[in-house]
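Example for tutorial group B:
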């Protein structure tokens, strides 16, 4: 998964050599008169709190992972899926560039505990186990975060990909080509306007693969090791013993632990994160 932000802002400026415009009273020949309304004494209209609502994006990790999540949340209330997407966007893959590694670690920990709250509130035992395993896997992906010092681009390890319905031993020939024949891969990528040429080059590589079963075996082993490492990522969680079966205690205990954590300056953000999470769950979708 790759996340990159290249937002650019242009500040409007007025030339300091230009005289400020002046309003001059006079008559408008041949033009009808219009009534005027002075708005200077009126306060700007304020929108009621909660009218503007943020909707978290749904991340794509792999066809298998996303189909699994869709299945888990298929019969759950919409607010449950929204709360889960909030965990991913705000806790696991937060795009705020100023957070320290320790602060990100705290957000991941709170996110794992929020996920446990969702499992206890909305899921049966079997469903919950599958969900929590997936949640931990994605937390492992979040822990692989890297920042390119030159560009500021943020990247995470990419999960193994396979199309819908593909067998478990499927391997992506383009990925193998990128790994074992990088020159041919670059040429194929450069042929952006000639799809026939791209397909022909990929077919040639697939023919080459028939004589290199070691490439396929090595790639499969590496992908299996990657998944195993992510699933078994050790994540110490200061919030893991929080009561996730009672909403009042859940909120109270997380806030108390946040206050006592070694992140005093970060405590308000942890508490705000929790408030946003709980607000999603208490806002029924009409």
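The residue assignment follows.
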């Amino acid at each position: 998964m790759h996340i990159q932000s290249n937002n650019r802002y242009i500040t409007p400026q007025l030339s300091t050599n230009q005289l400020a415009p002046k309003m001059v009273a006079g008559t408008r020949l041949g033009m009808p008169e219009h009534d005027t309304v002075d708005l200077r004494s009126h306060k700007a209209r304020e929108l009621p709190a909660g009218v503007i609502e943020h909707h978290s994006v749904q991340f794509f990790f792999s066809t298998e992972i996303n189909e699994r999540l869709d299945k888990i949340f298929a019969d759950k209330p919409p607010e449950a899926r929204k709360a889960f997407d909030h965990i991913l966007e705000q806790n696991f893959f937060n795009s705020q560039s100023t957070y320290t590694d320790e602060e990100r670690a705290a957000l991941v920990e709170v996110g794992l505990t929020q996920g446990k709250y969702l499992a206890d509130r909305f899921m049966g035992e079997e469903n919950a186990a599958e969900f929590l395993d997936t949640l931990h896997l994605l937390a492992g992906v979040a822990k692989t975060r890297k920042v390119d010092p030159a560009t500021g681009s943020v990247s995470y390890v990419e999960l193994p990909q396979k199309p819908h319905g593909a067998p478990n031993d499927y391997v992506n020939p383009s990925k193998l080509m990128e790994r074992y024949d990088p020159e041919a891969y670059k040429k194929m990528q450069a042929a952006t306007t000639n799809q026939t040429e791209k397909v022909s080059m990929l077919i040639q590589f697939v023919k080459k693969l028939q004589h290199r079963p070691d490439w396929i075996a090595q790639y499969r082993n590496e992908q299996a090791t990657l998944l195993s490492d992510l699933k078994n990522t050790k994540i110490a969680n200061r919030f893991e013993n929080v009561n996730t079966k009672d909403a009042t205690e859940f909120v109270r205990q997380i806030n108390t632990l946040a206050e006592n954590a070694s992140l005093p300056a970060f405590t308000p953000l942890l508490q705000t994160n929790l408030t946003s999470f709980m607000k999603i769950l208490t806002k029924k979708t009409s």
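Residues 188 and 194 are 9 Å apart (CA to CA). Compare this with the pattern of hydrophobic and polar residues in the output above.
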